[in-house]
């Protein structure tokens, strides 16, 4: 079955008793049992829920995974993954991660005895050299948030296999329409489903997909034991989002490419970072490992903090807001907003400067989007 068919059909057979073509919201905490010790497949919604099961089946199929586990947020998904490890275990992580991921690693799990090293995962030698005898996991985003650096998933998975460590990929920025890390050798793939999977900026969630039997067993146990589960209504909204994921991603890819090209030729813009541009360092890798370049575009404005603030306050269709991946275009200032929890020296080393702005290009009409950017850039100059 192809992607756009799976997104509409997997886990979504018509409901048995009524024939409803849409999976119902089973908004229940518990299930009546016919006798002690016997149940009809569900006992308690923290453990399982038919709406969440349908969503998990669908997203697993889109990532070509055997199993998926849905959580109340992307951070809940990442935190639950971390509970697979023990005091003294070491994790090699990308050096340009979502600020909240860096924060939970450094300010929560380090206190529980996990150790982290941060490396530029576009540098294969750096990844290989960072793995030590205690390393259990390599964790990366590709593209990274917010610098949009591209890592070679297949090459890193070969390193991980050689060293006997797991590879986890946060696939939030690409979505499975553009990139399927498990097919490239990753062991687990995670999403903030708040973003492209849900797609409408109306629900927060996270999900982990895997075909690794041992990892899957651990996550299934942890999902129930830790209890950071996605609720039935949120699972229903996210499943509805999946139905149009392919359609939306196609348009996100097209619109972002057009925005990146437009900004590349604007004198108020110093640098445009978009993996779809031939001058991007990761362009060839992304062409090889994916089916699209995504909807995220980062820019460095010709100017200082004041110019960036003016630009961010001047767009009308691009709302100034954290998050990304919804149908509506957003923009944000990483140094002050999403990555404020990353120390200033680390931000400076990564290039998250005061004139740096991140755009999430939505699915609106492209002429309207470019006109909005044009007037906002005009107000800066
Ligand atoms: O916000 P939440 O659903 O908990 O997901 C966290 C998360 C994890 N991984 C990546 C790559 C992310 O981008 C995020 C959330 N990011 C934002 C809110 C943002 O504006 O970048």
Question: Can you put this structure into words, describing what you see?
Answer:
The chain is of the alpha/beta class and 381 residues long. Helices cover 38% and strands 15% of the residues. Helix 6 (153-163) links the parallel strand 4 (135-141) and strand 5. Ligand P1T binds at residues 73-75, 98, 100-101, 141, 145, 170, 172, 192, 194, 204, 206, 322-324, 338.
List the helices and strands and how they pair.
Layout: H1 3-9, H2 50-62, E1 67-71, H3 74-82, E2 90-94, H4 99-107, E3 115-119, H5 124-130, E4 135-141, H6 153-163, E5 166-170, H7 175-178, E6 188-192, E7 206-210, H8 213-226, H9 232-243, H10 245-264, E8 269-273, H11 283-289, E9 296-301, H12 305-314, E10 319-320, E11 330-332, H13 344-350, E12 356-360, H14 366-380
Parallel strand pairs: 2-3, 2-4, 4-5, 5-6, 10-11
Antiparallel strand pairs: 1-7, 6-7, 8-9, 9-12, 11-12
Helix pairs in contact: 1-2, 2-9, 12-14
The chain binds ligand P1T.
Ligand P1T binds at residues 73-75, 98, 100-101, 141, 145, 170, 172, 192, 194, 204, 206, 322-324, 338.
């Amino acid at each position: 079955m192809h992607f756009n068919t799976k997104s509409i059909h997997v886990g979504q057979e018509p409901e048995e008793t009524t024939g409803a073509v849409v999976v119902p919201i089973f908004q229940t905490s518990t299930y009546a049992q016919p006798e002690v010790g016997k149940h009809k497949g569900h006992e308690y919604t923290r453990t399982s829920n038919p709406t969440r099961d349908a969503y998990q089946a669908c997203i697993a199929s889109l990532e070509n995974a055997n199993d998926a586990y849905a959580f109340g947020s992307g951070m809940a998904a990442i935190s639950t993954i971390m509970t697979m490890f023990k005091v003294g275990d070491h994790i090699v992580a990308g050096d340009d991660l979502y600020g909240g991921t860096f924060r939970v690693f450094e300010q929560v799990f380090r206190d529980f005895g996990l150790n982290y090293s941060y490396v530029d995962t576009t540098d294969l030698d750096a990844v290989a050299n960072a793995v030590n005898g205690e390393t259990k996991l390599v964790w990366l985003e590709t593209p990274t948030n917010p610098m949009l650096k591209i890592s070679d998933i297949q090459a890193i998975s070969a390193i991980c296999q050689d060293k006997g460590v797991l590879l986890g990929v946060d696939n939030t920025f690409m979505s499975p329409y553009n990139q399927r890390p498990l097919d490239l050798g990753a062991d687990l793939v995670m999403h903030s489903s708040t973003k492209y999977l849900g797609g409408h900026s109306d629900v927060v969630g996270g999900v982990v997909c895997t075909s690794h039997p041992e990892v899957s067993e651990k996550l299934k146990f942890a999902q129930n034991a830790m209890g950071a589960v996605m609720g039935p209504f949120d699972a229903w909204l996210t499943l509805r989002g999946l139905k149009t994921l392919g359609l939306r991603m196609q348009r996100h890819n097209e619109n972002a490419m057009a925005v990146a090209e437009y900004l590349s030729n604007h004198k108020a813009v110093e640098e445009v970072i978009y993996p779809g541009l031939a001058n991007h360092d990761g362009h060839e890798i992304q062409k090889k490992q994916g089916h699209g370049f995504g909807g995220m575009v980062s820019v460095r404005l010709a100017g200082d903090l004041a110019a960036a603030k003016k630009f961010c306050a001047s767009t009308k269709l691009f709302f100034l807001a954290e998050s990304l991946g919804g149908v509506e275009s957003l923009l944000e200032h990483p140094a002050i907003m999403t990555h404020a929890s990353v120390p200033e020296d680390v931000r400076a080393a990564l290039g998250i400067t005061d004139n740096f702005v991140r755009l999430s290009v939505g699915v609106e009409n492209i002429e309207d989007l470019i006109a909005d950017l044009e007037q906002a850039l005009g107000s800066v100059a």
